[in-house]
Design brief:
The protein is mainly α. It is built from eleven helices and four strands; from the N terminus they run αββααααααααβααβ. The chain starts with a helix and ends in a 22-residue tail after the last strand. Keywords: Membrane, Transmembrane, Transmembrane helix.
């Protein structure tokens, strides 16, 4: 780069930075009178999101005016609002996963709002695994997964199978609802366990989990659920402006049914025209380099189509129109 050109480049960068730094001040001064103008030492300002006076969960109105509820909701809304990259990633991933999960919830008689429980459990990361061993979108522990019909071993782990894990979660929700008759209490039990929630309801003479004194994680859990619904239902209100092409599209698959073992999944993937990595990404429930299948069980493998493996922003569809600005 020539010396003069380099100098001009540096001066341009400095000018852009200075203009960018002054814009918030100029904008602020045009809307706020001098007596009440902000005196920020940084070139941007943050503000607390407004906590609604009430929200709904499965059509039930939840009053948030009481100070303890309001402040707990406030904490979670601020967390989602200012965890910028995480929340933006949630919206992008929701465009891919909500269309899969919502019909399963509906078919099993579970409120649609429970998709937000999946959001707070795993950040919509289907290969998520907690230090305690919970796995998948719904973060099932191994024993709980098996209890509700999932195969969990070193070769196959259906906690990572979106459809099957969602069906298992529905079974849990229905069982807990039969006990409590309240969906938010069901959500608390999903986090803390039914035994603990039942015990605390009895000890504290309470009828609703929101009124219990619980460990911080569970105490926050129900409000994180409500905040996730609020933010993902109205992302633009909280400053998240995405275009349609920013969202993650559904990946087209063809389904291959197998009832035998597969000795080498790399060879199998090559025969299907994809790589082993792509096979594992599309079927994260496969946990080894082979599928043993000693009981001749029937499995359905997803094989991404060639078209589906290449991103085309022009064909991306926004599942929820509230997620995008165009």
């Amino acid at each position: 780069m020539k010396k003069q050109t380099k100098i001009n480049y540096i001066l341009t960068l400095i000018s852009v930075f200075c203009i960018g730094a002054t814009i918030p001040t100029l904008i602020g001064s045009s809307h706020v009178n001098e007596q009440h103008s902000a005196k920020s030492e940084v070139p941007y300002c943050v503000t607390s999101p407004t906590v609604p006076t009430q929200v709904t969960f499965d059509g039930t109105t939840i009053d948030l005016r009481r100070y303890d509820r309001r402040e707990r909701m406030d904490r979670e809304m601020m967390a989602f609002t200012y965890m910028h990259s995480t929340t933006m990633l949630l919206i992008k991933r929701a465009n891919r996963y909500f269309p899969i999960v919502e019909p399963i919830l509906k078919a099993n008689g579970i409120p649609d709002d429970f998709k937000y429980l999946m959001v707070i459990e795993s950040n919509l990361n289907n290969i998520a695994r907690s230090p305690a061993g919970a796995a998948g979108l719904w973060q099932f522990m191994p024993a709980t997964g098996r209890e509700f019909g999932l195969e969990v071993n070193d070769n196959v782990d259906e906690r990572y199978n979106i459809e099957k894990a969602t069906v298992a979660a529905c079974k849990y929700f229905k069982q807990a609802y039969d006990k409590y008759g309240d969906w938010l209490t069901v959500s608390a039990a999903y986090n803390a366990g039914q035994a603990r929630i039942s015990s605390q309801l009895d000890k504290q003479l309470a009828s609703h989990a929101m009124d219990l004194w619980l460990v911080e994680e569970t105490s926050r859990y129900m409000f994180r659920l409500l905040a996730a619904k609020e933010i993902l239902s109205n992302p633009q209100r909280y400053g998240f402006l995405l275009k349609r092409e920013h969202l993650y599209p559904a990946i087209p698959y063809k389904k291959v049914t197998v009832s035998t073992s597969i000795d080498n999944l790399s060879d199998f993937a090559k025969q299907q025209g994809i790589t082993y990595a792509q096979l594992r990404d599309a079927n994260p429930w496969l946990r080894d380099t082979s599928l043993k299948n000693k009981t001749s069980k029937t499995y359905v493998l997803h094989i991404p189509t060639q078209e589906g493996m290449y991103y085309n922003p022009q064909k991306t569809v926004a599942y929820n129109k509230n997620w995008v600005i165009d």
